[in-house]
Amino acid sequence: MSAPLVFRAMTLAEVRTLVGWAAREGWNPGAHDAASFWLADPEGFLALEIGGELAGGGGIVRHNDQFGFMGLFILEPKFRGQGFGHRLWYERRDRLLSRLSKPATIGLDAVEAMIPFYARGGFQPYYRHVRYAGQPQARVTPEVVDLATVPRPLLHQYDRACFPGPRQAYLDAWLAQPFAHALAIRRNEKLTGYGLLRKCSPGWKLGPLFADTQDEAELILQRAAAHAGSEPIFLDIPENNPAARELCSRHNMQPVFECTRMYLGPAPQLDHNKIFGITTLELG
After folding, report:
1. Reported pTM
2. Using CA atoms, how far apart are residues 165 and 93, in angstroms rounded to an integer?
3. Does the pLDDT of residue 4 top 90, yes or no?
4. Which of 38, 162, 190, 213 has its CA 20 to 30 A from that of 19?
């Protein structure tokens, strides 16, 4: 008799386990990603249990009524190749759809080999995300300030142009990570860019990196490099913003990974020219 399959909500401890598996696979998550993911949506993670054992899981994160994200999809190696991942993925898709209002959009980031599978599930490819790594030139300038000095309503308004709908819970948890550096640029009381540098192993990830111009994105990147010291910085850029790629090239950062952003439902209308680095590949 085959062991029973159970789909159920994950605990925080299990989300930590999932992030640990991701680290083992080379995804290089942040040191405090699990807690931040959980605070974004405690009901946003689905486990697959087989015979009483955690076999896999993934995100079904509801950022707002109209937008959700499916990421952090992973199975323990011994459960792969048996159709369990297929069943888990469709269960996740359907449960997330049930948590959203119609018409809603779900996003995910797909490695090339998985694009046909996700397409059969209703997702359409739109553009690539490319991870760049390197040691940008460090520079400290007075224009870059601590993001804590920026009023939260101003931050949330700025973020809304670069993300599909409000995500206050996610953003507030993300910016409160221990040992992270939240950076911003304000000109005449107007927010013109911000970024969050968080510790990974190895190095640091800068995400998000949103800015009005390439010059302002560069100032934040260089300030982040000053914090990172001799360690590398990783930046996940959207290829539909050529200025982001130019910025990485200017600082001799090299591409190390790529995936494709896919959507089920209407593609969000974003100010892509401001997006120099997305927040994460796991939650969008």
Report:
1. 0.95
2. 19
3. no
4. 162
